[in-house]
Amino acid sequence: MLDSWIKATETGRVRLRDTALAAFAPVVWGSTSVVTTELLPPAHPLFAGLLRALPAGLIALAATRTLPRGAWWWKAAVLGVLNIGLFFPLLFVAAERLPGGVAATLGATQPLIVAVLAVAVLKESPSAWRFAWGVTGVVGVGLVVLGPAAGFGVAGVLAGLGGAATMALGVTLTKKWGRPAEAGPTAFAAWQLTAGGLFLVPVTFLVEGAPPAVDVPAVLGYLWLGLAGGLLAYVLWFRGITTLPVTSVAVLGLLSPMVAALLGVVVLGQTLGPVQLTGFALALAAIVAGQRSRPGAQIRQHGRRRAAAGHQRALDGAGVAVVPAHVAARGEPDRLP
User: What's the maximum distance between 2 C-alpha atoms anywhere in the chain?
Assistant: First the structure.
């Protein structure tokens, strides 16, 4: 009994630590809007995305000296394009064509898409629990960031949903394929950052043209986006995907628009009314619920543990299995079920 309690406590602490580390990524990403508007040259978001991905990937590659092997060349390229290379341009189009609150709300649909992909790709059981809290998270983010002047353009909406779906697929495939044994979290992130950054090079220069002039505040902003928002954030994010349930990691993404709204209050002097505070409460509830197993799953897991314990007790005593009475009554040979 005591050993079981100690093991459960240690497992809970590990889960809490892994969740906190994974949450660092969306928290830092929530600062992107303020850093971009206050420090970076205007009209060059793709260039900012390029500097967030490619230098961080090359630095991590140089530090780890680990390259993909075999099928991981194309797998890393696919994951890098989905999680970074395609996601950034779609995010840019949504931000350009839609009010920021609408774009953030569309991005908050990612946990819902991951919940669907977990069934289709990972063969997990459908979960009304996850879907309900995913909807709650979208509603919460919407209440926080949507204003009365919110508008919906078709191209912007498609880009916003496309960005959410692209990253959701990348997150799900990252969970499905796992991480190769020869690669630690830093090397794994390096492959994807480099692949996504290389994909962004032609896209950035075709869309935005020549790089902008860079002053000291811009250098500081690019360093923050590249080191904290790129290298460190993606190392912890991909580590979280491989160590935690994929739907639990996906719902952590709701932290990004919430942090952006808080920074708007602290840095830009914006205010939050009762509606926004209600949205915060709903989004936080969705994040916390997303880290817990649904009640039915907990009951089934407890039942499996009790069955396993009973089976082990049946094996005790000179290592001879106890044959259930209903098996002996049928005259079946002695064997383990």
Answer: 86
| Residue 335 forms part of a structural domain | no
Instruction: Tell me the per-residue pLDDT of 6-32, one tens digit each, with 9 for 90 and over.
Output: 455 566 788 889 999 999 999 998 888
CA-CA-CA-CA torsion sign (83, 89, 93, 98) = positive
pLDDT at 3 over 60: no
- Tell me the C-alpha distance between 257 and 286, whole Å: 14
Rounded to whole angstroms, how far apart are CA atoms 304 and 299?
Answer: 9
Q: Report the chain's terminal Cα–Cα distance, integer Å.
A: 26
User: Are 111 and 251 within 8 A, CB to CB?
Assistant: yes
Tell the burial category of 284 from Cβ atoms under 10 Å away from its Cβ (0-12, 13-18, 19+): middle
Domain identity same for 222 and 308: no
43: left (phi over 0), alpha (psi -120 to 50) or beta: left
Confidence (pTM)? 0.80
Same domain, 308 and 209: no
Nearest to 46 by CA among 83, 78, 91, 94: 91
Q: Report yes or no on 115 lying in a domain.
A: yes
Phi-psi region of 336 (alpha: psi -120 to 50; beta: other; left: phi over 0): beta
Same domain for 106 and 180, yes or no, is yes
Residue with tokens 């986006």: 225
Confidence of residue 195 (pLDDT cuts 50, 70, 90): very high
**SS3 for 76?**
helix
Domain that holds residue 267: 2-292
